[in-house]
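Re-running Manganese/iron superoxide dismutase C-terminal domain-containing protein to confirm reproducibility after the cluster update. Everything else is unchanged from the original entry.
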Amino acid sequence: MSDQNQKNTSRPNTVFAIPSSRQGINAVHVNAAREMVRLHTAGRNPPSRQPQPQQQPQPPSLSTSSTFPKVSIPLHHDETECKNPQCMHCGQIIIPSPQSSFPIQDKPSISVNDWSVYTAKRPILNSVELDGLAESKRFEFPLPEMIFGNNFVRVVHKDGGMIEFNALNALDSLDCESQLKVSYHEEWLKSRKSKERQKRVDSNGGTSKSRDLSEFMNDDDLKPYDWTYSTNYRGSVSKFDTPKSADKEIPIEKLTRPDPILFFDESILFEDELADNGISLLSYKIRVMPTCLLLLCRFFLRIDNVIFRIRDTRLFIDFETNELIREYKVQEDSYNNVLTKTHSKDPKKLLRDPNWHVFHYASMAHNNHFFFEQLTNAEDAALTKPSRFLMEKLMHQDVLDVHQLREKMLNLAENSYGQGWIFLVETSDKKLKFLNCMNDGTPYTYLKSHLLDLNGGINESNYQFLETMKQKALNDEKDYNLPILAINYWDYMYINDYGVTGKSEYLSKLWDHINWNVVNKRLFQL
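Result of re-run:
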């Protein structure tokens, strides 16, 4: 029996091929990339809860009291069903959808009371779609370089009223001609005419000698048009019985309340760089709160050395009263007048400054190094504690123990919008202070700390902060800080491990890994 087992387990002498010396992609790297994509996709889903056996599955909706508006994903989509998941905790629509494929073909939507919002975000029009527009002869002028003709935002009332913003309808509202001209306007216009003539020649037989091409050689064959694409678009309205309060102003106090944002989306409708003479851009942004909706459709124009122009259409809807307010505002000024109101009359100066250009990367690299330097495993961190000297200085900030310090810093990070850092710093007068540095702000100097947060709206304190910053910018920097402890609340720190809504769980576990020996030494650094 033993001899038979040895015969069965013996392996034949096989000659294996020697691998090639050429280096390819390591399979480990490929698997790691796939795993990262999977974690990133899964992290966008809200944390799932196991349902009780006796409970019946419910459609995604926000459970609220009787006074809270009814929030849900529309069950009957006008084109295709919305596949964007809805957070079971706050009702927010998650964009982009984890099921989206490249290119992104999201069609997120939401319903609040009697109103539904639909949006679509697709790539720019391809050659086939552009040829179809040319054959339809809808536009008798050269179109913008980039048209997102399939993008739209649509607000629908249950009675059938609708207002929509899209690129093609916006281009229908252009004026016949623009009086704005650049330095080589004539040469640029002739090049556009040549392209138009060539298209007509190609569509009528190319270089056929039997064809009289004189009609295509006329310099006036291209009709005058607004080459800046300055649209007067205020939206496409149909079947609206809801009264439009033209004399009323949008209630700013209702928009600045800290209400949760259930739905947010933004997209570009068209864009043109005006032959490198500036930019012409039409875009929209929309945010939906439990009690109201605000939509902004903005046209922005910049012609170098000529003009700045902004045309805004704002749409406000009150879900409680069904009141609709549409506001149209035009702002424009000469290029030179706008520059005189800036700190520097040379707007490209910062782009030529290597120190400013690399600030973002240098600051983020330093902040991350400073943050990870103070971390260790939980077992070693439990053996360390803040020094007595540090705790005595914290008492002046009404922080009496480590637990209060933990609550103070983690609450600051938890209640902060966007991305950033919470720093405990020692000021130039040897006092401790907490700083909330937004994005890539650094705690060392006042003007680079990025302390102003505009995510919650602009109020009087924001204006006072800007005025203080302006006065300090005119003088030499005197406020130097020494960072001691840092909390990183950028989403890349927790989204892969805890998901989109895992910020609180990440922060609570982060505190258990702080090495206080490193923090104590920082207090005595020069």
